[in-house]
Amino acid sequence: MASAAVSAVAETSEPAASTGLARVLQAVTGRLVIIVPYLWLLFFFLAPFVIVFKISLSTTAIAMPPYTPAFSLDEGFAGLWSQLQELNFDNYLWLTDDPLYLNAYLSSVWIAGVSTLLALLVGYPIAYGMARAPVSLRPTLLMLVILPFWTSFLIRVYAWIGILKPEGLLNQLLLGLGVIDTPLVILNTHTAIFIGIVYSYLPFMILPLYSSLEKMDYSLIEAALDLGCRPITAFWKITFPLSLPGVIAGCMLVFIPAVGEFVIPDLLGGSQTLMIGKTLWNEFFANRDWPVSSAVAVILLLLLIVPIMIFQFAQARAQEQGR
Amino acid sequence: MNPTWSRFNITSVVLGFAFLYLPIVLLVVFSFNASRLVTVWGGFSIKWYGELFRNQGLMDAAWVTLRVGVISATVATVLGTLAALALTRYTRFRGRVLFSGMVFAPLVMPEVITGLSLLLLFVAIDLDRGFLTVTLAHITFSMCFVAVVVQSRLMSFDRSLEEAAMDLGAPPVKTFFQVTLPVIAPAVVSGWMLAFTLSLDDLVIASFASGPGATTLPMKIYSQVRLGVTPEINAACTLMIGIVAAGVLAASIVNKRREAQRQRDAQAALRA
After folding, report:
1. CB atoms within 10 A of CB A15
2. Range(s) for CATH 1.10.3720.10 in chain A?
3. How confident is the model at residue A3, as a pLDDT?
4. What CATH homologous superfamily does A90-322 map to?
5. Contact A7 B94 (CB under 8 A)
6. Number of domains making up chain B
7. For residue A14, what is the DSSP state?
8. Long-range contact list for B154-161, CB < 8 A, 24+ apart?
9. Cβ contact (<8 Å) for A37 and B79?
10. What average pLDDT does range B134-147 have in this prediction?
11. Which of A8, A55, A172 sits opposite B93 (nearest CB)?
């Protein structure tokens, strides 16, 4: 990988017109622009994944670190080959044997999917309203959407505990208004998790939606209306298809992190909720089973590869258009 | 073309912002509650702020968090700006796909995966977990956010300015510091602030990457929140919100002034 980086840099450097030290220095700084962040990400982002994969194949041991390596280079490459032949996928088999893990994966995808849909339903009218706002007001509205993002995620989730709990503010309000007679049980249910995810990730949904809606040429709608199209039909035939890139980007930005979410199910979902991020956390911190938690992480990553690819593709396309 | 801002549009925007802000407002209000019961109003009081400053554990954690935040945001800003330059200026180099993948993937990567993988790396290279490892972990994920922010600014950058400087004999490094950097400075500054708040905010990755003696504020708050809602935590949260809000406000005022100054300069130049 590192050699790819080096040759990558060699390719971009300008033809070596070595007229003195200054030229050499220039070429070197030109390379550093790529090579420094490249090496950093290779070492701190890509290499760790390789290690996770390696440890997911090893066996648990009572030691520090608590596992026996599956293979190592101590015995040279010949030894590595024989070790590879007796690799064990026990941790993965363990994951398929125990329905707990399968259920956790399924319920994570389900919870994240429902939350993403809800976030789209809540976020779309907001983004649409912002895109139709007077031009002078738009920067302020945009800033107001971004501002909650600057306040701590943990704090925002925590704020909902005080609102949703049985003696919380929402129940007090509803009881006071006489809407309900007995307090609603919302905290420690899936509903609380939906609320938490929609609330925390709403800015991620609104921003891409807003940017694609704002670019839209409103005269298209006017033309449709002039030609006798009903507003609802005009929305579904023109506005929505044109905002599709924003819809996709927003949904991916909410769905992907929500699948692996830990804080929200842990604080709002109570002990009964099953989500894979929580399972991984417990496997690691409570059971100290590093190989199994690594296997959980590998499968979670495989699960998210398709949505991540969609997101990358959308990003790359947006970049091309921006150029 | 001036599309109408219908009543429906206004209502959805107002309701949306109410949803986004009401929980935070309630949290702030109840930090001034005299009663220990967080949901019953017992009169105005600032006693929880006093309790907060007497809580040594919380204060230590705040100090750790602040140092991690400043160091990691600064390094992440340098690395992220370099990455953004690499992505916009060098459109063809081998491994570019992998590189852009590594820049964008951390933006959506579930935190539990990033945290676990970094921890296993630190164990593999035998690095003791603590202040250093938390800082390294925060640099890694926040540099990608900086890269995205700076990159979007670089894409709208008029490259003829750089070309002019180089034609006039300025070496690339000098061109960067005297021409490019001043233009992209607002993006670099907001990149730093974003990296800083991400670091301030992070619970999951810090929990994996940290060791004894380097407990960050979110870790401390989390361990207390699990035991229930307390007014001290409300007070701590309010302070954090206040600091961040003041920072964002100051930055936007500075930005506005600079923008106004720029416009005045442009007009003066036109008149001249």
Report:
1. 6
2. 90-322
3. 42
4. MetI-like (1.10.3720.10)
5. yes
6. 1
7. P
8. B154/B84, B154/B85, B154/B88, B154/B89, B154/B184, B154/B187, B155/A319, B155/A322, B155/A323, B155/B88, B156/A322, B157/B183, B157/B184
9. yes
10. 94
11. A8
**Per-residue confidence band for B118, with pLDDT thresholds at 50, 70 and 90:** very high
Q: How far is B270 from chain A (nearest CA, A)?
A: 24
Q: What is the CATH number of the domain that holds B88?
A: 1.10.3720.10
Query: Residue B258 domain-assigned?
Result: yes
Examine residue B232 and state whether it is found in any structural domain, yes or no. Answer: yes
Question: Which of A187-196, B66-75, B155-164 shows the lowest per-residue confidence on average (mean pLDDT)?
Answer: B155-164
Question: How close B231 comes to chain A (CA, Å)?
Answer: 11
* pTM (predicted TM-score): 0.82
The answer to whether the CB atoms of B9 and A133 lie below 8 A apart is yes
Q: Which of B23, B82, B140 sits opposite A159 (nearest CB)?
A: B23
Residue B192: inside a domain: yes
Q: What is the mean pLDDT of residues A126-137?
A: 90
* Residue A114 predicted with pLDDT over 70: yes
Q: For CA atoms A190, A112, B230, A176, give the dihedral sign.
A: negative
B120–A294 CB contact, under 8 Å? yes
Tell me what the pLDDT averaged over chain A comes to: 81
The encoded tokens of residue B34 equal 């005299």
Of B108, B218, B244, the CB nearest to A308: B108
B45-73 average pLDDT score: 88
